[in-house]
Design goal:
- Keywords: Amino-acid biosynthesis, Glutamate biosynthesis, Oxidoreductase.
- This is Glutamate synthase subunit beta.
- Helix content is 32%, strand content 16%.
- With 487 residues, it is an alpha/beta fold.
- A five-stranded parallel β-sheet has the order 3-2-1-4-16, with helices on both faces.
- Helix 6 crosses helix 9.
- The longest helix is centred in the last third of the chain and has 20 residues.
Length: 487
C-alpha cells in the first residue's frame, strides 16, 4: 500500500487549469503542463489499503489501481507503467477523457473526497512516454491468421493491438481520412491533443498493425468481400447514428449535428482548413444537450469567438452532491458538473424543451423557441405560460446516438442480427450470429464511455483469438452483458 496515513495527512488536489483568458485563445490542452508531478506522489499516498478496492468494480478494465498508486507514491514510474498497461492499452486516453467511475467507487469517497485516480493515471503514462518505458511489443511468432478490424476508435484500436500482439496479422479499416475515430474528430484538441493518438499509432505500426484509412466497409468495400479476405473480422464501428430533433424549422440552415460541427474544428488543427466551414464566430450559439458532447461544443464555440453560448438540457439540474438514497456509493452518480468549457463562460439552462426554430427570409436560423418542462405522471410535460425565444444563429444537436450506421450496408451485407435496442447482437464471446465476425464497443453496447470501449475491444480480441486458434491467453475484462454499477 501507499502511506498508511496519506488520506489523513493530505487533502485532494487536482490538476491546475490555465487561466480562461489564456486558454480560449488557443487549442492546447487546458491543464498547466507539468502541474501534476509535484503533487501526484502525495495524492497517490491517499490510497488507503481499503481491503476490498471497489475502484476495481467501478472500472470495467479492472485497473490495478492500488498497485500503481503505491508505485506512483514511491515514484517507481517504470513499475507503475507496467501495472497500468497490464489492464489498459491506452491510459493516456482514459486519463484525459474518462469520467472516472473508479473515483465514484473509491472507498475513501464514502466520507471524504476520493483519490485522484485519473490524475495519477495520466501522470504515470506521461512519465512513461517521457522516460521511454512505452515501447513496441512485437510478437515473437506469427500465427498465419489474418484479422480485419472495422473502426479505429478506442474499441477498434484495443482489439487490434491485442490481436497483433497475439501474433495475428491485423488490418484496421477506418472510413475517415485519419486514424482515431471519435478520439480524432469527436474530441476537441483542448481536451486531448492529437499527438497522444499519433504516437500510439506509431507504436502499433511498429508492432505490425496495418491501417487502411478512407475505406468505408459497406460502401467502398463490400462486407462480404472483406470476410473472404480475412480469417476473422472485428466490427468496432461505433454508435454513429445521431439522435435528431424533429420539430418545425429543423430544416433551416445553421442547425447541425454535433458530429458535423466538431470534426471541422479538429480538421483546422490538422491543417486541412484555415477556418472551419461551420464556425461560431460572431454568432449566438445554442447547444442542445447537456452531456460531454454538448460541453465539447461549448468549448469549441468559445474558441471560435461566439457572441454568446447557451446550453440547453431537458432534464432538471442534478444535485452537486451524491444522494445516499437514490445514488448510493459505489454507484456512478449523476451530479452537476462544471467542465473546463463551462468555466469559460456561457449559460446553462435546465428543464427546457425546444418547440420550434424560427429563421430569416434567407432560410437561416435566427431564433430558438423553448418551453420549460416538468414531470407529470412520470413524463416530461411543457409548463403552460413558460414559452420564450432566445437568439440562435448556430445550433448544434448533442443529444446522443441511437445505434451504429445501418445505411452504409455493413449490417445487411454481413447479415447481422440486431438486439432490441438496435445494436449489433453478440454472444458470450462477442461473436455475432455470423461465425468469425465479432463486435466490440458502442456498435454492440450502444453509446458508452471510452473505458468501456477499451474493455470491449480487449474482450472481443480474446473471443477472436480463441476462434482463430482454439484457445487464448488474452484477458477478457468484461462480458457482453456487463453494465456499469448503477441503482
Amino acid at each position: 500500500m501507499a502511506d498508511p496515513k496519506g488520506f489523513l495527512n493530505h487533502g485532494r488536489e487536482v490538476a491546475r487549469t490555465r487561466p480562461v483568458e489564456e486558454r480560449v485563445k488557443d487549442w492546447n490542452e487546458v491543464y498547466v503542463p507539468g502541474s501534476l508531478l509535484p503533487i501526484i506522489s502525495k495524492q497517490a499516498s491517499r490510497c488507503m489499503d481499503c481491503g476490498i478496492p471497489f475502484c476495481h468494480n467501478g472500472c470495467p478494465l479492472g485497473n490495478l489501481i492500488p498497485e500503481w498508486n503505491d508505485y506512483a507514491y514511491r515514484e517507481d514510474w517504470s513499475a507503475a507503467s507496467e501495472r497500468l498497461h497490464a489492464t489498459n492499452n491506452f491510459p493516456e486516453f482514459t486519463g484525459r477523457l474518462c469520467p472516472a467511475p473508479c473515483e465514484s467507487a473509491c472507498v475513501l469517497g464514502i466520507n471524504q473526497p476520493p483519490v485522484t485516480i485519473k490524475n495519477v493515471e495520466v501522470s504515470i503514462i506521461d512519465k512513461a512516454w517521457e522516460t521511454g518505458d512505452v515501447a513496441p511489443r512485437i510478437p515473437e511468432r506469427l500465427s498465419g491468421k489474418t484479422v480485419a478490424v472495422i473502426g479505429s476508435g478506442p474499441a477498434g484500436l484495443a482489439a487490434a493491438q491485442q490481436l497483433t500482439r497475439a501474433g495475428h496479422t491485423v488490418a484496421v479499416y477506418e472510413r475517415a481520412d485519419r486514424v482515431g475515430g471519435l478520439l480524432r474528430y469527436g474530441i476537441p484538441e483542448f481536451k486531448m491533443e492529437k499527438r497522444h493518438i499519433n504516437r500510439r499509432i506509431e507504436q502499433m505500426r511498429a508492432e505490425g498493425t496495418r491501417f487502411r484509412t478512407g475505406v468505408e466497409i459497406g460502401r467502398d468495400l463490400k462486407a462480404t468481400d472483406l470476410k473472404k479476405r480475412y480469417d476473422a473480422v472485428v466490427i468496432a464501428a461505433g454508435s454513429t447514428t445521431a439522435r435528431d430533433l424533429p420539430v418545425p424549422g429543423r430544416e433551416l440552415k445553421g442547425i447541425h449535428q454535433a458530429m458535423e460541427y466538431l470534426p471541422l474544428a479538429n480538421k483546422v488543427q490538422e491543417g486541412d482548413y484555415v477556418t472551419a466551414p461551420i464556425s461560431a464566430e460572431g454568432k449566438h450559439v445554442v447547444v442542445i444537450g447537456g452531456g460531454d458532447t454538448g460541453a465539447d461544443c461549448v468549448g469549441t464555440a468559445h474558441r471560435q469567438g461566439a457572441a454568446s453560448v447557451t446550453q440547453l438540457e431537458i432534464m432538471p439540474r442534478p444535485g452537486e452532491e451524491r444522494n445516499p438514497v437514490s445514488q448510493p456509493w459505489p454507484t456512478f452518480p449523476m451530479l452537476y458538473k462544471v467542465t473546463s468549457a463551462h468555466e469559460e463562460g456561457g449559460e446553462r439552462v435546465y428543464a427546457v424543451s425546444t418547440t420550434h426554430f424560427e429563421g430569416d427570409e434567407d432560410g437561416n436560423v435566427q431564433w430558438l423557441h423553448l418551453s420549460e418542462v416538468e414531470f407529470v405522471d412520470g413524463k416530461l410535460t411543457p409548463k403552460p405560460g413558460t414559452e420564450r425565444k432566445i437568439p440562435a444563429q448556430l445550433v448544434t444537436l448533442a443529444m446522443g446516438f441511437t445505434g451504429t450506421d445501418k445505411e452504409n450496408g455493413l449490417v445487411d451485407q454481413f447479415g447481422l442480427e440486431l438486439d432490441e435496442r438496435g445494436n449489433i447482437a453478440r454472444e458470450a464471446d462477442f461473436q455475432t450470429n455470423v461465425p468469425g465476425v465479432f463486435v466490440a464497443g458502442d456498435a454492440g453496447r450502444g453509446q458508452s464511455l471510452i473505458v468501456w470501449a477499451i474493455a470491449e475491444g480487449r474482450s472481443a480480441a480474446r473471443g477472436a483469438d480463441r476462434f482463430l486458434t482454439g484457445a487464448s491467453d488474452l484477458p477478457a475484462p468484461i462480458r457482453p452483458t456487463d453494465r456499469a454499477l448503477a441503482v
